[in-house]
Specification:
With 64 residues, the protein is an alpha+beta fold. It is 56% helix and 12% strand. The chain has a two-stranded antiparallel sheet with strand order 1-2. The protein starts with a helix and ends with a strand.
Length: 64
């Protein structure tokens, strides 16, 4: 799955995929961004539109 496809998904679907990748494959948001080739901030802004932010401690996006 490439970055442009991922970032253009419906935000709630993107949230589910991202949190699954963080849980199973990537140790951090930085690792996720490097793996899929997008900017961390782009993803964070996209998920903020539905009320989620990245939590470093749990390594997942959580509701604000």
């Amino acid at each position: 799955m490439d970055a442009s496809y991922m970032l253009n998904l419906e935000a709630n679907i993107l949230l589910g995929i991202v949190n699954e990748k963080l849980r199973l494959e990537c140790n951090s948001l930085e690792d996720l961004a490097l793996t899929f080739g997008f900017e961390e901030r782009s993803l964070a802004r996209r998920l903020e539109t539905i009320g989620y932010h990245y939590d470093v401690i749990t390594n997942q996006f959580k509701a604000i």
